Amino acid sequence: MSNFDPHTHLFTELAEFARVLGHAHRLMLLEHIAQGERPVERLAELTGLTIANTSQHLQHLRRAAFVETRRDGKRVLYRLGTGPIENVLSSLRAYAEHTRREIRDLIADPSAAANRLDSITYTELLDRMMNGQVTLLDVRSSEEYALGHLPSALNIPTDELEKRMLELPSDKEVVAYCRGPYCVLSTKAAELLNMKGFKVRRLAAGFPEWKAAGLDVET
Question: Which PANTHER family match (predicted)?
């Protein structure tokens, strides 16, 4: 008689996935890869890790199918796997935000700006986009913007915003977004625009969550 227990096998498999994700550097790598595919050298630079350490973590993620690769000439590019990985990352962030006061304080920095400024869900944003009522502002780097962005979004990195503010139409509401709910770039941008008299809101989620919902993306 077989001792195989399908329930035990399932939870063992789940525990193995959780073990692979149970490292801060791997979660950081997944966050960067969620913005678009990148080579190991660039991922090492973005995370501050050595190339060897980055490669080791990527191999763990690849074996668990969290990332996939493709060759581009001599380079190997990493992208997210085909499963609902962005949803897993979003769920982890939501749980951390629910249980950790320190993380909520980090999101609210500086000076609790995120709590003072209105946010908008992507469902509401889609309605306003269809009516041409908003200007989408992507405040990530030009590199991240080139890898993928919301349709018709204007790219002005946060540190360039004060000098390039005239590029924004003043007769429409501005919706700023960045890398995700823990990214404070959109908060800082929204606070600056609000001080300058713009009608502005922040996208409650970010680019990875937008992609995870299966919504249109431009490159």
Answer: FAD-DEPENDENT OXIDOREDUCTASE (PTHR43031), PYRIDINE NUCLEOTIDE-DISULPHIDE OXIDOREDUCTASE (PTHR43031:SF1)
**Residue 183 designated active-site:** no
pLDDT digits 0-9 by tens, 117-159: 578 988 899 998 988 889 999 999 999 999 999 999 999 999 9
- Looking at residue 160, its amino acid is E
User: In terms of pTM, does the model score above 0.85?
Assistant: no
d(CA 206, CA 153) in angstroms, rounded, equals 13
At the second CATH level, the architecture of 111-212 is 3-Layer(aba) Sandwich (3.40)
Q: Which two tokens stand for residue 19?
A: 């073990």
Measure the CA–CA gap between 43 and 75, rounded to whole angstroms.
13
Architecture of the domain made up of 6-80: Orthogonal Bundle (1.10)
**Cα–Cα separations (whole angstroms), residue 173 to 38, 105, 111, 189:** 33, 27, 23, 14
Task: Identify which of 119, 68, 87, 43 has the alpha carbon closest to the alpha carbon of residue 211.
Answer: 87
Which residue type, as a one-letter code, is found at position 198? F
At residue 136, φ and ψ (nearest 5 deg) are -85, 130
